[in-house]
């Protein structure tokens, strides 16, 4: 029985799916409505301040014109990974690419995470094949 007449159990979300993507809060909608009439004037003022050398206004304008890139494609060919033995070839290629300046250390680390996930998948496939072989011997 739910406590205090609530329609859901304690500790259970009333909306397990969460907020819909792209939805905005009432406050955000109200602020947008308030600022919509003055948006042109505010932008003109911000650009004027930026042109006059105001560092905060300059940063705001630059962030809008050219936002910081979160991620980028990394053109890098990894050697194929079929078995765990291939892992040393892949890590060697990543280290060489960092040393040559083709990849940044953080890019190589992210690629290393993908390689690790792939190696775990290869290991799991190998374990499953061994298990299947053992089970077929029992029959």
Write the layout of secondary structure elements.
Elements: H1 26-36, H2 39-51, H3 55-65, H4 87-99, H5 105-138
Strand percent estimate: under 5%
Helicity level: 55-70%
Indicate the structural class: mainly alpha
Given the structure, what is the number of helices?
5
Q: Major beta sheet, specifics?
A: none
Supply Rg.
Answer: 27 Å
Shape: flat
- List segments where confidence is low: pLDDT < 50 over at least 5 consecutive residues: none
The total of beta strands comes to 0
Count of structural domains? 2
Mean pLDDT: 84
Name the helix and strand elements from N-terminus to C-terminus, one letter apiece.
HHHHH
Instruction: Tell me the distance between the termini.
Output: 50 Å
InterPro entries: DUF5681 (IPR043736)
Organism: Methylobacterium terricola
Protein name: DUF5681 domain-containing protein
Domain DUF5681: 8-66
């Amino acid at each position: 029985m739910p406590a205090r007449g609530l329609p859901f159990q304690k500790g259970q979300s009333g909306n397990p799916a969460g907020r819909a993507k792209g939805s905005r809060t009432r406050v955000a909608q109200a602020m947008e409505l308030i600022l919509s009439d003055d948006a042109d004037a505010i932008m003109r003022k911000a650009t004027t301040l930026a042109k006059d050398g105001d560092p905060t206004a300059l940063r705001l304008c630059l962030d809008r014109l050219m936002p910081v890139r979160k991620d980028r494609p990394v053109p890098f060919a990894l050697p194929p990974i079929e078995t765990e033995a291939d892992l040393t070839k892949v890590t060697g290629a990543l280290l060489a690419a960092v040393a040559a300046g083709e990849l940044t250390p953080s890019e190589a680390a992210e690629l290393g995470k993908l390689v690790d996930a792939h190696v775990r998948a290869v290991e799991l496939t190998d374990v499953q094949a061994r298990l299947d072989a053992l089970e077929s011997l029992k029959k």
